[in-house]
Amino acid sequence: MSEIGQYIFNGLMLGMIYAMVAVGFTLFFGVLDVIKFSHGDVLMVGAFAGLTASIAMTAVGVTSPVLQLLGMVLFAVGLTGVLGAAIAKFLILPLHKAPPLNTLLATLMLGTVIREAVRLFYPDGSNPKRFPALLPTSSFELGSMNLRVDNLILLVAGLTAIAGVHFMITRTKLGLAIRAVAQDGETARLMGINFEAVVLFTFALGSGLAALAGVMNGLYYNEVNFGVGLLLGVIGFAAAILGGLGNMYGAIIGGFLFAALQVLGSVLLPALIPEIPSAYKDVFAFTAVIIFMAWKPTGLIAEKTSERV
Amino acid sequence: MSHVNLIDVENLTMRFGGLTALDELNMSVREGEILGLLGPNGSGKTTFFNVMTGLYKATSGRISYAGENVIGKTPQAIYRSGVARTFQRSRLSLSLTVFDNIVIGDYQHMQHGLLFNLLRRKAFRAEYEQYVEKVRDLLRIFSPPLMDRLFEPVETFTMIDRRRIEVCRALMSQPRLLLLDEPSAGMTHDETDELMQDILQVRGKMSQLSVVLIEHEMNVIERVTERCVVLNYGRKIAEGTYAEITADADVQTAYLGEAA
Amino acid sequence: MSLTVAAVAMTLYVWMFLHAESQAAVAVLVVLAASAVFASRKLGATRVMAAAVAQRPGLARALSLAGALVLIAAFHDSHFVLLMLCAVLLYATACLGLTVQFGYSGVANFAGAAFFGIGSYATAIMAAHTQIPHVLVIVLSGLIAAVIGSVLITPVLRTRGHYAALVTIAFGILFKTFIEVNDVLGGPQGLQVPGMKLFGVSLNDGIEIPGVEISFYVPYVLLSLLVFGLVYALVSALERSWVGLSMDVVRTDETAASTFGLHIARWKVVAFTTGNFFAGIAGSLYGMISGFVAPNNFTFSDSLLMLSIVILGGLGNIAGLIPAALIVLVLPEKLQFIQEYRFLLFAAMVIVILLFRPQGLLPRKTRIFFREEAPK
Q1: Interface mutation target, options C110, C178, C344, C346, chain A, most CBs of A under 10 Å
Q2: I need a labelling partner for B110 at 20 to 30 A (CA). Which of A165, B54, C174, C338 fits?
Q3: Which residue of A lies nearest to C150 if distances are taken between CA atoms?
Q4: B169 and B186 fall within a common domain
């Protein structure tokens, strides 16, 4: 019984992380009609930044888990926020007038640049690195399930982050500005909204969220490697499309949906074919996505498009 | 001008969410006529063109064209039944050549098979040369200087020339119905005159060409059209000759506002 | 006259480039090329050259062929160089397919390497387990790639490019993972591919001319050159036909295209399928040449590498594919120190190109269906 519980919990964790990445994609698409393919790799940078912060803090003698966690998160989110804004300013905005496929291609390449840069220039970058275990490892019983405190904390943190972003977008003035720009950039500009500032902030926000996801990913698996961004990026993008690009709720649903597909795959497939390697769960999930997209190419909630004829 | 209706519009309604662009529109276009479609901005003229050419699907109502209901047909099918148009905001492929942009207007009569295009080059060349002649013939009427610049990209030409190119594209397919959406926007008085003359000249060579013309320049409407329909808020508010509709009180109100 | 001079100069340059052993020599050659290009632009020589090529396309093609044959003869005993030439020619062939998809029809395909790989794997299986003549195997491998690709058609047909992008990326990753975990297809080690047999003669046995050492790769290079030439001619004809025109119009303005009767879906499907077919046959031949096929050669990064060739050469201009392929594939082999940084550098290069010179090295010219040959 608790094995199912374990699977479900695992799925929730994954879904959380995917949802956080997907929200980023959807934010960027909403604001600038752009797919920033490097998003997954920005997540990876966040994870590595967190790792670096932890190493640095340990080096200067700060070993308290709470302080380390705090430092990690602050550094990771801060660094990637700046990175996200820089990408927006120097790559995305200049390419805004070019055909959209150019931006797609450029951000894909940027992701490769980031990935390779970490692999080549981070000390021993090509090998997976141990991520510090900073969360309490105790667990407690709830009914017939054995819940670990650290996973619970991660889950709650993720939910809080997403809720926080949601609150910001829907309840604050800044969020209103973001939504205005997403609806109609030209008019927003005419209304006095600083278009560029909003765009940069949105990218910083999405990237910061991804960094948090990256740190959480590292804490959950106790390791990070330079390649984690590619798969997470593709999954996050798929999740955002599943839920309908531009729709934040859809992105969250999409994230959990994809995780559910993976969990389903890892449960179903061994039941059908006993010796099947676990990597097939990814094959299963991606096949499901492709089939789904053949059926409903614009996702569960239709992408908003408007074009003057 | 015959009195057979080429197009019968019955209770045509087009809603976009909360916005009603066409509101139970009723009108008709007679075969062979030049009809002016007027009305203030936002009255639904371009929307009507978009529904007529299949780009939008009407919320309700019917358009009878040559006996069949247009609503629900694809743009491609509507084109094949002899409908061609120009766009209010010029839609040309700017990086492609003048020839490319014009010749594609006759898409339905070109041979598209891979075998023909890739392997039967001699036969293809023959068809190609025929089209070059046809394009030149059109340009001879609309813009002779362009005849020598057939293979230059459209983006190097002025807005006026681009509009002429768009009209040529629409005429390439020898349509039965020509929908012109503000073709003279940005042109001077003389250029507009010239354009209309050229269109009439081509029309003279074709057996039966019906034209629906959206225009804001009243001189053009007066001189060129035989009949006018005036729209406001998606409905027809007046119909008749130019003289009749300009005298109509509702039309004056629509354009100029209520008399004080 | 100037065409012949240019052809001789370029052949000589490529010969030196392929011949160079030390990295210093290569660096010098690169700088030389860059300055030559820069200078000729300033002096207007490039425009003269372009006009000359346009006026006498037949001669230009003949000279290119002659140059290629001279190079093959010059390196007749060097396995390594010939193998590289095969790679350049066959990757360029796959990129011809990508050009039809991306350059003409605007269909984003980020799984180019996967379709290349499908061609290789199909060939590995057919050549090892069936008696099908190898020429037919190549064609069938291409067809298999095209058919498998058609599975992705429906999402690819969506208007916005990012759906096609996601689906092809997912497919590429899926393909690699699938192959890796599948021991039937060799798993991570891959499969061996038998050498090609043409008219009963095994090409791996090589040619023998008494007294002259000839690498067994020579017939393979000639075959690669033939395949490239054929596909090049087909794509060139395609571009200068109603097919290419329709694809371009669909790409540039779907709305207007539909009001003039163009079948949007049909042209995208034709482009996607044809492009994958070319990638498949290129992969097929490459598999037979390299003797084996493994999933590690068909990663997402390899697909991106192919796209960088297409962009660098000039999107939509197939004449730029060979120079671009030479740069992307051969340069890292010559400048060993950048081998490690290959992906990083070329990805960065594409970004720079997209930002500052999106037309690439050889911008696509306007469509001229038929040129009158200039009198001598």
Answers
A1: C344
A2: B54
A3: A294
A4: no
Q: What is the per-residue pLDDT for C357?
A: 86
Structure tokens, C241: 């036909």
Number of domains within chain B: 2
Residue B156 domain-assigned (yes or no): yes
Contact A108, C110 (CB under 8 A): yes
Asked if A309 has any chain B CB less than 8 Å from its own CB, the reply is yes
CATH code where residue B250 lies: 3.40.50.300
* Yes or no, beta carbons of B107 and C262 under 8 Å apart: yes
Domain range for B215: 1-82+175-260
In a domain, B133, yes or no: yes
Tell me, yes or no, whether C124 lies in a domain: yes
Residues 6+ apart with CB under 8 A from C214: C76, C77, C206, C207, C208
User: Chain B contact for C249, CB < 8 A?
Assistant: yes
Task: Assess if residue C351 is contained within a domain.
Answer: no
- pTM recorded for the entire structure: 0.89
**Domain identity same for C186 and C51:** no
Concatenating the DSSP letter of every residue in A40-83 gives HHHHHHHHHHHHHHHHHHHHTT---HHHHHHHHHHHHHHHHHHH
Which residue segment(s) compose the domain that C185 sits in? 75-339
Residue B215 sits in the same domain as residue B243 = yes
- The minimal CB distance from B76 to the residues C237, C238, C258 is found for C258
Is there a single domain that holds both residue C54 and residue C89? no
Report which of B19, B23, B2 is spatially closest to residue B11, judged by C-alpha positions. B23
Contact A308 B89 (CB under 8 A): yes
Using a 10 angstrom Cβ sphere, with 0-12 exposed, 13-18 middle and 19 or more buried, the burial of residue C25 is middle
Are residues C212 and C182 located together in one domain of the fold?
yes
Q: Give the count of domains, chain C.
A: 2
Question: Any CB–CB contact under 8 A between B210 and chain A?
Answer: no
Long-range CB pairs of B245-254 (<8 Å, 24+ gap) are: B245/B38, B246/B218, B251/B38, B254/B39, B254/B40, B254/B43, B254/B230
Under CATH, what is the fold of the domain A2-295?
A: ABC transporter involved in vitamin B12 uptake, BtuC (1.10.3470)
Same domain, C23 and C113: no
pLDDT in tens, A9-59: 778 888 888 999 998 888 888 877 788 888 999 999 999 999 898 888 888
Instruction: Note the helical H segments in B27-156.
Output: 45-52, 75-80, 98-103, 114-119, 121-142
Q: Which of C:339-358 have CB within 8 Å of A?
A: 340-341, 343-344, 347-348, 350-351, 354-355, 358
- Any idea what the CATH number is for the domain that residue C288 is in? 1.10.3470
Q: CB distance A110–C351 less than 8 Å?
A: yes
C202 shares its domain with C333:
yes
Q: Is residue B212 situated within a structural domain?
A: yes
| Same domain, residue pair C22 and C160 | no
pLDDT of residue A182: 79
Residue B42 lies in a domain: yes
For residue A308, list chain B residues with Cβ-Cβ distance below 8 A: 89
Tokens of B58: 């009407």
**Which residue, of B173, B208, B236, is where some domain finishes?**
B173
Residue whose entry in the numeric block shows the structure tokens 């599975």? C151
Residue of chain B minimizing CA distance to A308? B89
Contact list in A for residue B55 (CB cut-off 8 A) is: 309
Does the pLDDT of residue C373 top 60, yes or no? Answer: no
State pLDDT tens for residues C3-47: 888 888 888 888 888 888 787 888 888 888 888 888 877 877 777
Q: Which residue has the higher pLDDT, C297 or C282?
A: C282
Q: In the prediction, which pLDDT does A97 show?
A: 82
Q: Assess contact for C116 and C294: CB atoms under 8 A.
A: no
- Inter-chain CB proximity B87 and A308 less than 8 Å: no
Task: Using the predicted structure, report yes or no on whether residue B10 has a pLDDT greater than 90.
Answer: yes
Taking the CA of residue B241 and the nearest CA in chain A, the distance in Å comes to 29
Q: C266 and C321: one domain?
A: yes
Inter-chain residue contact A294 with C350, CB threshold 8 Å: no
Of B44-58, C30-44, C153-167, C282-296, minimum mean pLDDT range: C153-167
